[in-house]
């Protein structure tokens, strides 16, 4: 990855927006601009903040990450903070004499930001989350290949796990098997895997429970892995046995909505337009009230990032954005079906990442 080129591109944008610098506070943006791979241990504990100025960059971190920062980055000043990130940042900003700084408001806790703002009294801080996300939205060829690998490894993990899953085990036991394979073949999960069976499958983001998986009922498995920081995300609904006629109908409807959307999505349409394609198909079959989330979301260094395929996303889709296509139908008290694959948006359609396997022909 050419991190230096990315920072130069950002620097040009800073000049146009009359900003003296930008504070990258999310782990994904830090990594995108510097190659520094450390994760934050929670909203209260940052592993570092990257300050990109027009002519140079500083990575503020602490002693735990000093060696890692020096090994992973190039062309960046590493500042090990012994008395707090806010004091170190204030010292540099005072030295370079900037007046306006952009920052990622969605990924910095209020307490830390307040300390920075109070310490840097003469600097105006402006929310600019979209500044980095605009660049991250359209993937570079190298990024697409890493995401493709992530999808392929995710499918391998699913295949290995599926051979050991069956009725009689609990959702938690199934999730442990999935995680074993994820840690064996990848850097780790891009999110905690979902295993939701029977009535629990009516909850789109269910947490695996001690419920025993039964024959013939729908089991939603939603999982993803990371390869060199890049995420994958796939969902399959499986049955151990023969599903009821109702769930065969629901499954066929979700499958049709997914395939119809994948054939129609292309650059230039809005995320809302894309969502409507699948939503209209599900509504046509009488299940419109049971499709309770958007059709998809962007994936990259974060498993959930722009663009979104949802009724609220009115922005146009761009080439080389990577998104999920994941319609679902959820019947309270009975169960649900969701199918999800990842695609690259092109001028004339989409490119499916992965094999698209493990889908029934009901």
Radius of gyration: 22 Å
Overall number of domains: 2
How far apart lie the N and C ends? 44 Å
Structure classification = alpha+beta
Order of helices and strands: HEHEEHEHEHEHHHEEEEEHHEEEEEEE
How would you state the average pLDDT, rounded?
95
Family: Belongs to the peptidase M24B family.
Domain Peptidase M24: 145-347
Keywords: Aminopeptidase, Hydrolase, Metal-binding, Metalloprotease, Protease
GO molecular function, one term: metal ion binding
Task: Write structural notes for this entry.
The protein is an alpha+beta fold and 362 residues long. It has two domains: 3-136, Creatinase/prolidase N-terminal domain (Creatine Amidinohydrolase, Chain A, domain 1, 3-Layer(aba) Sandwich), CATH 3.40.350; 141-353, Creatine Amidinohydrolase. Helix content is 36%, strand content 21%. The chain is built from ten helices and 18 strands. The strands form six sheets. Strands 4-3-2-1-5-6 form a six-stranded mixed β-sheet, with helices on both faces. Strands 7-8-11 form a three-stranded antiparallel β-sheet, covered by helices on one side. Strands 14-17-18 form a three-stranded antiparallel β-sheet. A hairpin with a 3-residue loop joins strand 2 and strand 3. Helix 7 (141-162) packs across helix 8 (171-185) and helix 9 (245-264) packs antiparallel against helix 10 (271-284). It is elongated. The two termini are 44 Å apart. Residues 145-347 form the Peptidase M24 domain. This is Aminopeptidase. Belongs to the peptidase M24B family. Residues 6-137 form the Creatinase N-terminal domain.
